[in-house]
């Protein structure tokens, strides 16, 4: 569970995020909608440990949390290297068969030796999504994971997210696609001028 109390975040003395009291629970998918600059990504970055809040309290296990950012971040090298090396760096075993199966599901198995810099935007998004779910964290945060993907791949992501929720994950996803939010979410929030409200 994530519990937020009286959280505030400022940029250059401007209040850009203010959440009084909010709880996110396991076995649920939460979608967050809102215009650009409303504070959606800021909230996810705070929960992901990339940014700190200026005021308030956060109660959750940050060590069991993973953030999939909107802009893919990769190591130099090919696809398979980027899906295995991060786990070697933290001394975690990774199942190569699982990686190959996921690449096949997303129809990019033929790209396993391709340099990540040569991938299209959609292919990069798929690789980053695969890497994120391989971490198998309890709390999973996704910032526009399907924005660069075709419709078929987007539906694959949605089904995987629902399966992970049913397996006990707490999932928060930022999306501009209201229909997607309706399809997968247990709860939909909208951010406006830094404040969250239920839709």
Question: Quick recap of the structure?
Answer:
The protein is α/β, with parallel strands linked by helices. It has helices at 40-47, 79-89, 96-105, 121-134, 151-166, 178-184; strands at residues 2-11, 14-24, 28-33, 55-59, 65-68, 139-143, 170-174, 187-192, 195-198. Strand 6, helix 5 (151-166) and strand 7 (170-174) form a beta-alpha-beta unit.
Written account of the structure:
The chain is α/β, with parallel strands linked by helices and 199 residues long. It has one domain (2-77, 130-198): P-loop containing nucleotide triphosphate hydrolases (Rossmann fold, 3-Layer(aba) Sandwich), CATH 3.40.50.300. Helices cover 33% and strands 28% of the residues. It contains 6 helices and 9 strands. The protein has helices spanning 40-47, 79-89, 96-105, 121-134, 151-166, 178-184, and strands at 2-11, 14-24, 28-33, 55-59, 65-68, 139-143, 170-174, 187-192, 195-198. The strands form 2 sheets. A 6-stranded mixed β-sheet has the order 5-6-7-3-8-9, sandwiched between helices. The chain has a 3-stranded antiparallel β-sheet with strand order 2-1-4, with helices on one face. β8 (187-192) and β9 form a beta hairpin. It starts with a strand and ends with a strand. The relative contact order is 0.22. The mean pLDDT is 94.
């Amino acid at each position: 569970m994530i519990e937020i109390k009286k959280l505030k975040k400022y940029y250059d003395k401007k209040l850009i995020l203010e959440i009084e009291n909010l709880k996110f629970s396991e076995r649920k998918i939460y979608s967050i909608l809102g215009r650009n600059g409303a504070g959606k990504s800021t909230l996810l970055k705070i929960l992901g440990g990339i940014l700190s809040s200026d005021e308030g309290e956060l109660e959750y296990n940050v060590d069991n949390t993973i953030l999939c950012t909107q802009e893919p971040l990769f190591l130099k090298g090919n696809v398979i290297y980027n899906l295995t090396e991060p786990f070697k760096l933290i001394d975690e075993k990774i199942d190569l068969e699982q990686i190959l199966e996921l690449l096949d599901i997303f129809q990019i198995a033929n790209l396993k030796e391709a340099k990540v810099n040569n991938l299209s935007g959609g292919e990069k998004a798929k690789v980053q999504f695969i890497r994120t779910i391989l971490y198998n964290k309890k709390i999973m945060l996704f910032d526009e994971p399907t924005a660069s993907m075709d419709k078929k791949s987007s539906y694959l992501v949605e089904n995987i997210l629902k399966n992970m929720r049913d397996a006990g994950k707490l999932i928060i996803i930022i999306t501009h696609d209201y229909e997607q939010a309706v399809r997968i979410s247990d709860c939909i929030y909208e951010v406006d001028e830094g404040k969250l409200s239920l839709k």
